Amino acid sequence: MASYREVLKKAQGKMEAADRGEQAAFLYLLELTNKEAHNLYMEYDEEMPQTQIDEFEAGVERLVEGEPLGHVLGFEWFYGYRFKVNEDVLIPRPETEELVAYILAAYDEYFKDTLNVTAVDVGTGSGAIAVALKKEEPNIHILASDISEKACRIAKQNAQDNDAVVEVLCGDMLEPLIERNIKVDILISNPPYIPSDEAMEDSVVNYEPHVALFGGEDGLKFYRIIFEHAKKVLKDKAMMAFEMGYNQKEALSTEARKYFPDAKIEVIKDMSGKNRMLFIYLNC
């Protein structure tokens, strides 16, 4: 049998030859063998069990074809929690973890002394944002909505798997809240914000749901829908938090000011220095 080192080197060669990069093969091996990187290094020259070799090589073939690592594994880690993912939901991205962190910080600043705080994650997909927020701040009553029934099922499963109480409502954008006359303190959304004509990597376009990616001609379609109807679901004192495209600061800020001229509007950069989050504060 081959060693971990030999099996990985072979896989990385295949990935490089396919112009996929070698990091995914290493991460896949760590997850498949349930090892930390330092443990794997210590066992590099030991024989790898044949059953694991067979499973690993089959997965690498899928990676070579461009399938995302999350789909090959069947899950993705987000904010320290494990989430089931497949072709029905967008794979949660690391930059969205920063959105969660800033929401938690804003909650502490503006709502820590408010009783019965309710938050909704609109377009929840896998439920990653909603579940992470509930796990990190159990005092918030968390709702999550999505137009896709398949996504709603996955979000419910992820909430259950992570022991998080999240109420999942299936419906278009804010409609489930409007229909139920629900008012929230915090409205969150990471909506589809990619312009419809923007070129994307094959691994994204071919494997992830387009309904979760593309936001109309300029990428702002779903923000406008939320802005137009937000006051129907927001309490007098409220906050909205959005992820956005790095180049949408001016356009999205302008749209926000049209609908909320008296609000405090803040654009926050991510760790890479790119404009990535929009926060809107009403009477805060």
TrEMBL record:
Record bears the keyword Methyltransferase: yes
Provide the top EC class.
Answer: transferase
The record places domain Methyltransferase small at: 113-195
Reactions accelerated catalytically: L-glutaminyl-[peptide chain release factor] + S-adenosyl-L-methionine = N(5)-methyl-L-glutaminyl-[peptide chain release factor] + S-adenosyl-L-homocysteine + H(+)
Please list the residue ranges annotated as the Release factor glutamine methyltransferase N-terminal domain.
6-74
Per its UniProt entry, which superkingdom is the organism in?
Answer: Bacteria
Q: Binding positions for S-adenosyl-L-methionine? A: G123, T124, G125, S126, G127, D146, N190
* MF (Gene Ontology): nucleic acid binding; peptide chain release factor N(5)-glutamine methyltransferase activity
Name the EC number(s). 2.1.1.297
Coiled coil: is it a keyword of this entry?
no
- A Pfam family for this UniProt protein? MTS
Q: Where, in this chain's numbering, is substrate bound?
A: N190, P191, P192, Y193
For this entry, list what GO says about its biological process: methylation
User: What keywords are assigned to this protein?
Assistant: Methyltransferase, S-adenosyl-L-methionine, Transferase
Family, per the entry?
Belongs to the protein N5-glutamine methyltransferase family. PrmC subfamily.
Q: Which HAMAP family match?
A: RF_methyltr_PrmC (MF_02126)
User: What function does the entry list?
Assistant: Methylates the class 1 translation termination release factors RF1/PrfA and RF2/PrfB on the glutamine residue of the universally conserved GGQ motif.
Name this polypeptide is given: Release factor glutamine methyltransferase
The primary gene name is prmC
